[in-house]
Predict the structure.
Amino acid sequence: MSAQLISGTALSQQIRAEVSQRAAALAASGVKPGLAVILVGEDPASAVYVRNKVKACADTGVHSVLEKYDASLSETDLLARIRALNDDPAIHGILVQMPLPRHIHPQRVIETISTTKDVDGYSVRSAGDLMAGLPGFRPCTPYGCMKLIESTGVDLRGKHAVVIGRSNTVGKPMALLLLQANATVTVCHSATPDLGLFTRQADVVVAAVGRRDTLTAEMVKPGAIVIDVGMNRDDAGKLCGDVDFDRVKDVAGWITPVPGGVGPMTITMLLVNTVESAERVAN
Ligand code: NAP
């Protein structure tokens, strides 16, 4: 392996230690940072994600409230609950775990969360703030990817970054964050005819597709930074990313593993956003 491993687990530990210190300082000044997590329905994967978020809060001194509702909860009742949390001074961040049952409109739910508590950064207002370069909450997964890239010490100014994927939650905000860091950015997607043509020119590749082996060794420029957002299963049922890690690691300069790369950073940046929200209130 010639690439240096970028460990999201190690970087997360470091950032979570900083979150703990900031949470303790806030608590000492009378403001305990608080996150409300809402889970509607019985989706097993969502239950695991929610459990991990609540545990991460407990580990870092962030107060969390988990509200679980039956899948039959009406949209009206969910929106009323969010409005109550918007008005609750003990809560600085509100997260509604996706996916929601089909009868609930996800964007209506997201837009009901107060902009000052939108720690997932999914609202149109938060997206607009990012687009305009204004302060606001950045979506946790691309925000975490930026921290992983920063940890390499490579200055992105003048570098070419290729993002594979254009979802509202990962690909698009990722491209905007890279642009803000002065990279020249290309966004590829399912209608891109020759992905390798673009990735071979990239100093940084962020793969956010959801299909294993999307990025193979011959598609990577030697020395590039490769960030793997994908979460897939291989034939043996083992968790894997979008990148052919075993071969790409011999070509890339830096690479994130799956698991232990982007995954732990997503929850960590949720904690960062929640503490930042509480700091805004305290100040
Ligand atoms: P998504 O909404 O399904 O978007 C996938 C994107 O990939 C789309 O923009 C799609 O293009 C593009 N795509 C599909 N096939 C492609 C191909 N052959 N070549 C190039 N682009 C292609 O998924 P997402 O929510 O962004 O998530 C992407 C992956 O990241 C998933 O595996 C997800 O589980 C994972 N994820 C991980 C974390 C974490 O914390 N580790 C967090 C979020 C997501 P079109 O727009 O043209 O359809």
